[in-house]
């Protein structure tokens, strides 16, 4: 690990942020959970913990996508790429990691339409292919969560150590405490709400850095000044593989290689990370695809603009008296992602260092909370409920969810400490991702999208592709450099080989195995009976009695009447539900068209002509480029900060009204309002969604028919193969 000569902040600042700010977020989320329970009747059952009542709107889904996809690596690795390869570094990261979330919108639609009761995508795998295949994808799903969490902790701890001198081991052990606490208390709803708060803070800090670099700071202060410094730097220290050695060109060999590695690796971390399916299943049916498409467009300027700003600020200020280290960074420090924190300190002194510390902490904790919920749902429903206790009730399942969150958090803390002492950097883990998990991407997606993929293709493709990818990675290293070492394995060509084999080899195995062993012709309606919800009426009743003790004379307990109220409202909701299902079916084609168009734009139409032309940005073109991303970041502000508040204005107003009535001694008005507006209570809405999602919809001659599915867990027949 790198040895830092100077730290801009004291160790106390690191502990203040990790422990102090973490405690504030944990306490705030616990308070929010209480308020939602009291004023909106949100009861944290096992289903609620995993799916938030399947009613989250598109604005919050967008904010959750932005926050979950903004890892420490998002900010640190993208900035490192700009520092190493110039302006294409920002786009190679941003473009290469946006398309996966955009394309995932299509997968989200089909998953919600075909398995409305699912909590994880692995449940779909089990319902379709059985135990053996399920075990394969549990391994790859958990491997994805482990790699992502390891990157979060290693990158976050290195940054905190660089800025404050805090020991990385202490950081690894403490940084996960806050997200573990609020995830246990509030489940996926807590994760989504804190994602929103984290997004507000991160985007605000990025805008502060942007205005400072491009407009107000006396050290830089305008795109023209930065362009002149970077142009001169390209002449003095030309970048190998870049057109004319310039930092101001898309033609970058190393940047192009990273572009491909980034695309490959991030397919795995989206399509195999149950955290993204968690949010898709938590979304209101018609909000899922909108949330992911709009969220991906809102996410793009975060790495693109932040890395452009801080990467060029680092290049411009590294050889000045403002640079905190007093010397250029070493290769190890660059690999650890320390360009951004040093640039922030050079740009704004201790204030900038403090801002980058908070921003990285927000990125680490928001993404980690998503990983915690992802692992807890896999542990609870795919391991415990599937193989240990199939008849577990809601109370037992939520206890397992809580336990798995805590265990995973501190197993990963120990793993991150081991990576620190093994000198494994975040950058290495980021590029290794695709080699390890890329082989399962295509077959897992086809499990949801294609009825023809057979058991053999789904089961054998991931291990075959991964084994070949690792072999190609090692053989390329040995052939090209003569020995297999950590540094040689981290070389561009070596990582590129392993990543490409992992992602593309399934294009051979999936169709080949499907042809050899015959197509499956799976009936999607079987998912409606094989994936079942947990019957939690007893837990709802107990929660009611606990909350309403001593108050029964004033008001009949609302929660004890939830099922009755929900049943009364069910018929009027059926029409809306059937319309949503038809909307999902119609939306799939439109979503695929939009996703493919955006993908081609970001991967081909925009970057390739600029790469091939070897164009060097002029001062005016560069200024326009900066202005475009300024405008784009304000779209992000609207989509993930302003719009969720507007969408949730009614809930916010009712909660504020309830708090006012409680504070002014008018609790009787709150009770009366809740009795007279049962349809607005979250617990009632959740019960309606539960009953509707256990109602299969058939459309015959244009007429909508319903058939009750109930809580059935039928035995898989041999036709699955």
What do these coordinates show?
The chain has about 725 residues and is an all-alpha fold. It has a domain at about 10-430 and about 610-640: Sodium/glucose cotransporter. It has 31 helices and 2 strands. It has a two-stranded antiparallel ribbon with strand order 1-2. GO terms for molecular function: putrescine transmembrane transporter activity; spermidine transmembrane transporter activity; urea transmembrane transporter activity.
Topology:
Blueprint: H1 11-40, H2 46-51, H3 58-69, H4 72-85, H5 87-114, H6 121-129, H7 131-164, H8 168-174, H9 177-216, H10 223-236, H11 253-271, H12 274-282, H13 288-299, H14 301-317, H15 331-335, H16 339-388, H17 394-421, H18 426-437, H19 441-449, H20 455-481, H21 486-489, H22 492-504, H23 506-516, H24 526-530, H25 537-548, H26 562-605, H27 607-613, H28 619-647, H29 649-663, H30 667-676, H31 682-693, E1 695-700, E2 703-708
Subcellular location: Membrane
GO cellular component, one term: plasma membrane
Pfam families: SSF
List the keywords.
two-stranded antiparallel sheet; disordered C terminus; globular; 721 residues; 2 strands; Sodium/glucose cotransporter; 31 helices; mainly alpha
């Amino acid at each position: 690990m790198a040895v830092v000569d100077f730290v801009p902040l004291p160790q106390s600042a690191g502990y203040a942020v990790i422990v102090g700010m973490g405690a504030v977020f944990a306490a705030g989320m616990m308070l929010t959970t209480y308020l939602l329970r009291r004023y909106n009747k949100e009861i944290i059952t096992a289903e609620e913990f995993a799916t938030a009542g399947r009613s989250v709107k598109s604005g919050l889904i967008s904010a959750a996508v932005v926050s979950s996809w903004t890892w420490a690596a998002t900010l640190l690795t993208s900035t490192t790429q700009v520092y190493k390869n110039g302006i294409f570094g920002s786009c190679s990261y941003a473009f290469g990691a946006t398309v996966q979330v955009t394309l995932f919108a299509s997968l989200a639609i089909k998953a919600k339409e075909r398995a409305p009761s699912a909590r994880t995508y692995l449940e779909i795998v089990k319902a379709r292919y059985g135990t053996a295949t399920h075990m394969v994808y549990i391994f790859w799903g958990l491997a994805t969560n482990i790699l992502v969490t390891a990157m979060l902790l290693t990158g976050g701890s290195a940054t905190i150590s660089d800025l404050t001198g805090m020991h990385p081991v202490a950081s690894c052990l403490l940084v996960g405490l806050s997200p573990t606490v609020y995830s246990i208390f509030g489940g996926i709803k807590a994760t989504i709400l804190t994602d929103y708060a984290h997004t507000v803070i991160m985007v605000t800090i990025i805008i502060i850095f942007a205005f400072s670099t491009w407009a107000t700071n006396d050290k830089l202060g305008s795109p023209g000044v930065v362009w002149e410094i970077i142009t001169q730097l390209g002449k003095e220290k030309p970048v190998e593989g870049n057109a004319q050695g310039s930092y101001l060109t898309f033609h970058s060999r190393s940047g192009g290689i990273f572009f491909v590695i980034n695309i490959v690796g991030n397919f795995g971390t989206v399509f195999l990370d149950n955290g993204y399916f968690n949010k898709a299943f938590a979304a209101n049916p018609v909000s899922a695809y909108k949330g992911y498409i709009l969220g991906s467009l809102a996410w793009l300027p975060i790495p693109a603009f932040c890395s452009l700003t801080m990467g060029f600020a680092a290049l411009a200020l590294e050889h000045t008296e403002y640079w905190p280290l007093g010397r250029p960074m070493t290769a190890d420090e660059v690999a650890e992602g320390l360009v951004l924190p040093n640039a922030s300190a050079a740009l704004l002194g201790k204030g900038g260092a403090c801002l980058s510390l908070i921003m990285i902490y927000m990125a680490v904790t928001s993404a980690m909370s998503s990983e915690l919920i992802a692992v807890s749902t896999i542990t609870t429903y795919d391991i415990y409920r599937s193989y240990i206790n199939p008849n577990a009730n809601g109370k037992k399942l939520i206890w397992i969810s809580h336990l798995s969150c805590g265990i995973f958090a501190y197993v990963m803390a120990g793993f991150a400490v081991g990576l620190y002492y093994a000198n494994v950097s975040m950058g290495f883990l980021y590029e290794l991702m695709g080699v390890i998990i890329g082989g399962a991407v295509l077959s897992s997606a086809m499990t949801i999208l294609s009825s023809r993929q057979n058991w053999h293709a789904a089961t054998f493709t991931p291990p075959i592709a991964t084994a070949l990818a690792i072999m190609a990675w090692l053989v390329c290293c040995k052939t090209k450099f003569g020995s297999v070492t950590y540094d040689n394995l981290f070389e561009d060509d070596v990582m590129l080989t392993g990543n490409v084999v992992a992602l593309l080899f399934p294009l051979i195995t999936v169709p080949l195995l499907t042809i050899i062993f015959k197509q499956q012709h799976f009936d999607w309606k079987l998912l409606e009976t094989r994936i079942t919800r947990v019957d939690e009426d007893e837990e709802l009743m107990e929660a009611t009695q606990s909350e309403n003790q001593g108050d029964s004379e004033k008001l009949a307990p609302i929660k004890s009447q939830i099922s009755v109220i929900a049943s009364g409202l069910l018929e009027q909701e059926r029409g809306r539900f059937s319309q949503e299902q038809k909307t999902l079916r119609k939306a799939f084609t439109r979503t695929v068209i939009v996703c493919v168009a955006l993908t081609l734009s970001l991967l081909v139409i925009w970057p390739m002509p600029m790469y091939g032309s070897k164009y060097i940005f002029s001062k005016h073109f560069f200024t326009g480029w900066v202005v475009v991303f300024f405008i784009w970041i304000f779209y992000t502000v609207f989509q993930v900060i302003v719009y969720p508040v507007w969408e949730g204005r009614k809930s916010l107003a009712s909660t504020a009204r309830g708090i006012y009535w409680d504070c002014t001694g008018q609790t009787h008005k709150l009770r009366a309002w809740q009795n007279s507006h049962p349809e607005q209570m979250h617990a009632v809405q959740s019960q309606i969604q539960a009953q509707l999602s256990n109602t299969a919809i058939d459309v015959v001659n244009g007429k909508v028919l319903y058939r009750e599915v109930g809580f059935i867990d039928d035995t898989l027949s041999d036709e699955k193969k």
